[in-house]
């Protein structure tokens, strides 16, 4: 069955197509699987690549609920519950996801194919959903080799770097060594470089765990405004010490004296992931905002999503740098940023953690005008929150 009408047969019903229509030719010959669903999740179209990967016949699934044959697991073979299965959530809610890595369970032989899945909703929640999946078997093998090398090298180099840090600390301690001021300056510089190198190895190990899927989120129901406020408020002493202003609950300064009530919104997230995400974004805001500036943190419900923003009035990001800031090892190279330390991996790690929870992250900025980083995560209703809390408490009670 096809979705494409013939141009020279205007009265043909939806589902009719010419044998050689460009759209059908393209979908029939690409290597990626494509399935088009209606808003209820029923199949309207499936291309040959998808039928081969799923081990099914196209005529057998047209009109069927996709959940009957579109079965997925995590890359390591972990079964996904309804709340963990971001593919099902995206299809039902009409929510976009991009390059979500899963294992496709194919046919009666239960063959498992690692794929990168994307969902594109068309015409809102009540429109179609275009689901595409790409076989990433070869890609994962190559990444595995790279990851193994980086992981082994990082492990091996952490030990001597830790020893160097330890000896430098002893040399700088007045109780264990006596040195003049010039030598102390040299040793302080060496100690800072050793700490930077140690952080680089730590970040590299985090990256390898995230890239190979060994670091999976442990999702739990959370009231998001309270969680983000708790994490960000811990930065107040550091922000205050840097002569910066801090405000939670607004993307900008309050107008007048009216008090503002924070919105209560719920999410299903990994609390440790959230802590590292907020830590990194606020830490960057502090580093890149000169004294006298301001940092604002806000959480609000945005339709089906929880939207978090961290805004600063700092040096900003140029138009040339903005598209690359979430790439591995990318750092802006200008006179304002060259003296600020960093591994170039922090925002990449943040992006991977956000995506692991089914969200996305982006930034809006202009050089010299400050930056705003947005994190969007799936939102759950208060009813879903209560049900998940009861379920989690029951599991924890049973475990005891």
In the CATH hierarchy, what is the architecture of the largest domain at level 2? Answer: 2-Layer Sandwich
What's the SSE pattern?
A: HEEHHEHEEEHHEHHEEHEEHEEH
Instruction: Tally the structural domains.
Output: 3
Low-confidence stretches: 5-19, 251-260
Instruction: Report the strand count.
Output: 13
Main sheet characteristics = 7 strands, mixed
Determine the strand fraction and express it as a percent band.
15-25%
Instruction: Give the C-level CATH assignment of the largest domain.
Output: Alpha Beta
CATH homologous superfamily caption of the largest domain:
Histidine kinase-like ATPase, C-terminal domain
Provide the fold topology.
Elements: H1 22-29, E1 33-37, E2 43-46, H2 48-54, H3 58-61, E3 71-73, H4 86-93, E4 97-106, E5 111-121, E6 129-135, H5 137-172, H6 181-211, E7 220-223, H7 224-233, H8 236-241, E8 245-248, E9 266-269, H9 271-287, E10 294-302, E11 305-312, H10 346-356, E12 360-365, E13 371-380, H11 382-399
Parallel strand pairs: 8-10
Antiparallel strand pairs: 1-2, 1-6, 3-4, 4-5, 5-6, 7-9, 9-13, 10-11, 11-13, 12-13
Helix pairs in contact: 5-6, 6-10, 7-9, 9-10
